[in-house]
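Please go through the protein record below and explain what the tokens say about the fold. Record follows.
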Amino acid sequence: MSRRGTQVVTALLGLIMLLLLGMGAMSQRLNRLLEERPAVAECLKAGGTAGQCRDASGVAAGHAAAPSP
């Protein structure tokens, strides 16, 4: 393999590793959120969208939900 080919393969592997690390971090963050807010988890299990469940969790936590335009 040429030097140029080796550099391309190395760059691609580096990007894949960064992508996997980012996905792992997002997964951990989501797990922590669902553990801290069981109402959100139940809403998602019931088929609610992310926006609906976010609004429901804000109201359930005693925060005023943002008015819809």
